[in-house]
Each structure stands twice: as structure tokens, then as C-alpha cells.
Design a protein that fits this description.
elongated; Isopropylmalate Dehydrogenase; 11 helices; twelve-stranded mixed β-sheet; alpha/beta; 336 residues
């Protein structure tokens, strides 16, 4: 690639810096640049017993020396991040994470980066810093807004066997049910279809999971499938989208799973709520799961786990999901 992938550091007191350091140590991030705090990355390398040098870059797209962890440290980071206690919620870490994400997006939109891979952040640390977003997805949506209009975005969790796109994300279950509307389901199908087409899947087979047990069983267990979801699927099909359902949410993921000896019936599954869609993918292996934000004017991926404060700084964090996120970002760029 001519442009580097940018990795935002995540929460300085979580496992983000550790898994980033391990990705470089395993030669899985040679085309990447870290947007973060130089001292925090040096601390992570010391904690892991790794002897890679950290190179501080003057520009994010500067060619670094070989065999190092290249870091571009943006202005505005709180001081003393590397002296904070590991595994603790701290507003300074939330503020630093927000700065790194903001600067990374701006660099990509300016043409200085190819894609964004985000290390885990902590929602309470963001809140403690006064950041008005519950997580990455909402922050990225706001950063990508043009003319004051927020782009419609959706969350996809993916691994080699299953890809799931969500109608609703970080809201209460009661609110998630309220968000199952004709317009939102149809918009999700459009985003899933359009994004998959940009990746080279011209006519992705999209299965739509129902909201209720047995997809409502003809209205016996709820009528959202009849009144909302099925009409949205029909409207999507009328637009040339290869969508079908609604299917019972307790079996559709098994049908979609693409495993050795079991070719999946579908390329994507659209699920109505966060846990409906994410539990099946995470059950197949958190270490291989990748979170992808659909609908942004840039490619963004991340590991499918959090800051893991309980093991932060102990050298036990597994970088596999971050490496998978880097590989997914490369693949999405190459196919777009």
C-alpha cells in the first residue's frame, strides 16, 4: 500500500498498547503507524519484555526505520499517561483515546492514511473525560459528518465463518425493540448490500433474522416480523437487494456459518439487536472476531474485545483479534 494503516492506541491503561506492540513484534503490522503516546508504547514494550525501539514520527505518513514501532503523537494528549495505574478507569485515558481517534480520522480524510484500526477504549473513561459518545461507532459517525448530517452507519462483527450486521447497537433492549422500524431495517439492508458490493460481492446473499422467538411464528409471539421486517425485506428486494427472511434468530446463524464441510447459505446476516447478532460470532472465537463500521467514508476495523483491565500490564493479552482486524482492513482496502 502507498498509504499506511493507522492504529489508534485505545485506552492507555488497558491492553491496547500491549496488543499493538505484539502485532509489530510478530511482523503483522509493518504497514501500520500508531496514533498514540510514545511513552505509553514504550511502557507496553517493557511490560512485555520486548526490545523493539519506538520511533517518534514527525508526520503520520513518514517512512519509519525498519524493525521499530512507529508512533505519531498528536498534540493535545494529557501529560503523564505512562505513569497512570494499569487496569484503572481514568478520565485522562478517555481524553487521550478521543484525541487519537479524532486525529486518526482527520489524517485519513486528508489522504494521509489508508484505513483505521482502533484498539479498545473504555466507555466509562470516555464519560469521565466528558466525551459525549458512548463508543467508537458513534464518535466515528460524528467525525465523518459532512454539512452537519450524520452518515447512517451500522456495526458488523465478522470472522472467517460468519458476518453479522446490526440494526441497533449500544442501547437498552427496550430501546432496541423500538428501533426495529421499517425505515431502519431497510436502511440496514441497503448499507450491508452497498458495502459488500464495494468489497467485491456484487449480490451478497443477506439473511434477515427475526426479532421474536421463531421469527414470531406467524404473529403468535409478536408481529414485528409481519408488520415491519418482512415489508422492509420486500422493499429491499424491489431495489435489487438479495435479501430473504425473516428467519428464526436461533437457527439462521447456523445456516449462514461458512465452515469446512458446511458452506454457508448466506454471506451476511442482519440481526435486529446487539446480542442477537454478536453472541454467535463471539462464540466462534473472540480471538478471530473483527468489528467493522459500515457506512463511513473510510475503512474502520477493530478487535471484538474490550480493554481487559483485569489483565492489563501483565503480558497475558492475546493480539490475535487485533492482527485479524489489521488483516481485514487490508483486505477491504484491496477489494474496494
Amino acid at each position: 500500500m502507498n498509504k499506511p494503516l493507522l492504529i489508534s492506541m485505545g485506552d492507555a491503561c488497558g491492553i491496547g498498547p500491549e496488543i499493538i506492540a505484539q502485532a509489530f513484534a510478530r511482523d503483522g503490522a509493518a504497514d501500520c503507524r500508531v496514533i498514540g503516546d510514545v511513552a505509553v508504547m514504550r511502557r507496553a514494550l517493557r511490560q512485555l519484555g520486548l526490545h523493539l525501539p519506538v520511533a517518534r514520527l514527525e508526520a503520520v505518513n513518514e517512512a519509519p526505520p525498519p524493525g521499530c514501532v512507529p508512533v505519531w503523537q498528536p498534540e493535545g494528549l494529557p501529560p503523564g499517561l505512562a505513569e497512570l495505574s494499569m487496569g484503572q478507569i481514568n478520565g485522562a485515558c478517555g481524553a487521550a483515546a478521543a484525541v487519537c481517534i479524532t486525529e486518526a480520522v482527520q489524517q485519513i480524510l486528508a489522504g494521509n492514511g489508508a484505513a483505521l484500526v482502533t484498539a479498545p477504549i473504555h466507555k466509562e473513561a470516555l464519560h469521565a473525560a466528558g466525551v459525549p459518545f458512548p463508543g467508537h461507532t458513534e464518535m466515528l459517525q460524528a467525525l465523518a459528518a459532512q454539512g452537519g448530517a450524520l452518515p447512517p452507519v451500522r456495526m458488523m462483527l465478522a470472522n472467517a465463518e460468519l458476518r453479522t450486521v446490526l440494526v441497533s447497537i449500544h442501547v437498552s433492549l427496550r430501546r432496541a425493540i423500538e428501533l426495529v422500524t421499517f425505515d431502519r431495517v431497510l436502511e440496514t439492508l441497503r448499507i450491508a448490500h452497498r458495502t459488500a458490493a464495494a468489497w467485491g460481492q456484487v449480490a451478497p446473499r443477506i439473511a434477515v433474522a427475526g426479532l421474536n422467538p421463531h421469527a414470531g411464528e406467524g404473529g403468535l409471539f409478536g408481529d414485528e416480523e409481519l408488520t415491519v421486517i418482512a415489508p422492509a425485506i420486500a422493499a429491499a428486494c424491489a431495489e435489487g437487494i438479495n435479501a430473504s427472511g425473516p428467519y428464526a434468530p436461533d437457527t439462521v446463524f447456523m445456516r449462514a456459518r461458512n465452515a469446512p464441510g458446511h458452506p454457508g447459505e448466506f454471506d451476511l446476516v442482519v440481526a435486529m439487536t446487539h446480542d442477537h447478532g454478536l453472541i454467535p460470532v463471539k462464540y466462534l472465537g473472540v480471538e478471530q472476531g473483527v468489528n467493522v463500521t459500515l457506512g463511513l467514508p473510510l475503512v474502520r476495523t477493530s478487535p471484538d474485545h474490550g480493554t481487559a483491565f483485569d489483565i492489563a500490564g501483565k503480558g497475558r493479552a492475546d493480539p490475535s483479534s487485533l492482527v485479524a482486524a489489521i488483516e481485514m482492513a487490508r483486505a477491504l482496502i484491496a477489494s474496494s
